[in-house]
């Protein structure tokens, strides 16, 4: 297995992700736990030293134990990892002085044909992504330069005899297009066959859950979304019925959703699942409320209350399971305390653990969305379930601008179901990040048969996106839009006008509230 020593870079997890893509098993451990004894127990086949925010010339900057370089295994230093490696092996690092490079840079080859860069330089230069202030000033003995950039004369260096390699740029990020090739070369040099699988990850995750939970009990708020579902099924495999799932139906679910979720998890997976129908509670608290933030806050607060009451009724549990993904982890770290403004108060169970004094079980914390889907497949969740579009915690409340009524929700559910049905029938579902109907708080005049109608207007929303942070509207054909509008107006009583929302994000958001 491969050891990644983490010096605190924002992108360390991406190294792990790239290695998993190469079917190599790795673990990330923070530098302060990596001692000589740790290394002996871990017995790595190769070591990667990550980037990080510290500065090598500072007296107290972090170091790996020198033993890392005496294991006889290949070592790759990235960014800060390169600098610390050079310094420890006898080179020098200078503090940034007008040599900083941030973002895209180009490196060119030297005479050294390094195995590390095999497959690089099809053109004369390669694009890489840099993010450094300091840089290596003098190489450690034994190293030679394999690639240089204007700001980093030692952009890639190698000591092939000892199989030590170090790069100033970040091969793990998307903006270093040949970075994957570099990492692949490194793991091949280290002798990995690339035979690790998501099945192995699942076994390892199960072992880790067992170790963390011991004979404790776990409760989990199951929303029916992919993340909480995969987390729940995984934890259930690990600890069986010491897991209890709670599905809070706030009356703001889509058509047939509660039946699908409870049916699948209770009947198919045999998960201990408590289905709480709290629609009266939520809908009466939302009665007459039209401000979007107020809606979100009411739903968030009630959710915590209901969940807490249920946990108490079960006699408590030491652990709360959450389907937190790696992007959620980085965002909350990098923005915590920062000057970012709240665009929307997202509803999740984030306030729960502190309130309830519970410890968190977050088995997906290291994974990215597509990896969670793969893990879900590994756990036997059906494809149509795993590929489901995201659905926000506050549900239909934020797709019904203005005050919510049961009547409007019923109309919205029907229209939404038809829109999704159309998308599936036309084979477009998987090309779209998210699609839904928003019911507008206006009535407009129409004519059907020989009569006048005065009914609601609705908007169709469908976007493409990679992460939900930015999005573009989906370019449906006019035929598709026309057919869908006709179906909605003919099949749903209460809607007589259909519009298509062609706003991208930014400036729009995906949801309407
Ligand atoms: P916006 O509307 O902010 O949405 O562009 C971005 C993505 O986040 C989802 N979303 C939420 N998800 N709780 C959630 O779990 C929420 O409160 C929430 N609000 C928005 C939205 O559906 C889209 O995928």
Automatic annotation (TrEMBL):
GO terms for cellular component: cytosol. Its EC number is 6.3.5.2. It catalyses: XMP + L-glutamine + ATP + H2O = GMP + L-glutamate + AMP + diphosphate + 2 H(+). Catalyzes the synthesis of GMP from XMP. It is an enzyme of class 6 (ligase). This is GMP synthase [glutamine-hydrolyzing]. HAMAP family: GMP_synthase. Homodimer. PANTHER family: GMP SYNTHASE [GLUTAMINE-HYDROLYZING] (PTHR11922:SF2), GMP SYNTHASE-RELATED (PTHR11922). InterPro entries: Class_I_gatase-like (IPR029062), GATASE (IPR017926), GMP_synth_C (IPR001674), GMP_synth_GATase (IPR004739), GMP_synthase (IPR022955), GMPS_ATP_PPase_dom (IPR025777), Rossmann-like_a/b/a_fold (IPR014729). Pathway: Purine metabolism; GMP biosynthesis; GMP from XMP (L-Gln route): step 1/1. Pfam families: GATase, GMP_synt_C, tRNA_Me_trans. Keywords: ATP-binding, Glutamine amidotransferase, GMP biosynthesis, Ligase, Nucleotide-binding, Purine biosynthesis. The keyword ATP-binding applies.
């Amino acid at each position: 297995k491969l050891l990644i020593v983490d010096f605190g870079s924002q992108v360390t997890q991406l190294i792990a992700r790239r290695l998993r893509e190469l079917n190599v098993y790795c673990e990330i451990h923070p530098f302060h736990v990596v001692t000589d004894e740790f290394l002996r127990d871990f017995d790595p086949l190769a070591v990667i030293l990550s980037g990080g925010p510290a500065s090598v010339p500072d007296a107290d900057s972090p170091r790996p134990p020198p033993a890392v370089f005496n294991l006889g295994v290949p070592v790759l230093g990235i960014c800060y990892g390169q600098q610390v490696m050079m310094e420890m092996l006898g080179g020098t690092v200078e503090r940034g002085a007008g040599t900083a490079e941030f973002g895209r840079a180009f490196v060119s080859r030297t005479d050294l044909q390094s195995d590390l860069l095999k497959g690089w330089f099809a053109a004369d230069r390669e694009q890489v992504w840099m993010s450094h202030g300091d840089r290596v000033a003098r190489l450690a003995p034994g190293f030679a330069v394999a690639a240089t950039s204007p700001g980093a004369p030692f952009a890639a260096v190698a000591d092939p005899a000892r199989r030590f390699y170090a790069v100033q740029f970040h091969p793990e990020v998307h903006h270093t297009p040949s970075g994957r090739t570099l990492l692949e070369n490194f793991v091949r040099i280290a002798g990995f066959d690339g035979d690790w699988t998501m099945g192995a990850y699942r076994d390892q995750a199960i072992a880790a859950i067992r170790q963390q939970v011991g004979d404790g009990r776990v409760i989990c708020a199951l929303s029916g979304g992919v993340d909480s579902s995969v987390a729940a099924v995984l934890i259930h495999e690990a600890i069986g019925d010491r897991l209890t799932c709670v599905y809070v139906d706030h009356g703001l679910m889509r058509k047939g959703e509660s039946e699908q979720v409870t049916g699948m998890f209770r009947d198919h997976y045999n998960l201990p699942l408590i289905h709480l129908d709290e629609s009266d509670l939520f809908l009466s608290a939302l009665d007459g409320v039209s401000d979007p933030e107020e809606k979100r806050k009411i739903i968030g607060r009630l959710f915590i209350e209901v969940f807490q009451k249920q946990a108490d009724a079960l006699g408590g549990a030491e652990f709360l399971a959450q389907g937190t993904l790696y992007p959620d982890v980085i965002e909350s770290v990098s923005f915590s305390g920062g000057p970012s403004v709240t665009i929307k108060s997202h509803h999740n169970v984030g306030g729960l653990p502190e309130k309830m004094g519970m410890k968190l079980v977050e088995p997906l914390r290291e994974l990215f969305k597509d990896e969670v889907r793969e893990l879900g497949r590994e756990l036997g969740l059906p494809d149509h379930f795993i590929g489901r579009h995201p659905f926000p915690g506050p549900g239909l409340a934020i797709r019904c601008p203005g005050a919510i009524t049961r009547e409007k929700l019923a109309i919205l559910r029907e229209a939404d179901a038809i829109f999704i049905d159309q998308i599936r029938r036309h084979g477009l579902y998987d090309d779209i990040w998210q699609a839904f109907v928003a019911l507008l708080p206006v009535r407009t005049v129409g004519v059907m048969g020989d009569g006048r109608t005065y009914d609601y207007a609705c908007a169709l929303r469908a976007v493409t996106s990679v992460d939900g942070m930015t999005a573009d509207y989906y370019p449906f054909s006019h035929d598709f839009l026309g057919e869908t509008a006709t179906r909605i107006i003919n099949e749903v009583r209460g809607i007589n006008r259909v519009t298509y929302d062609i706003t991208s994000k930014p400036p729009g958001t995906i949801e309407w509230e």
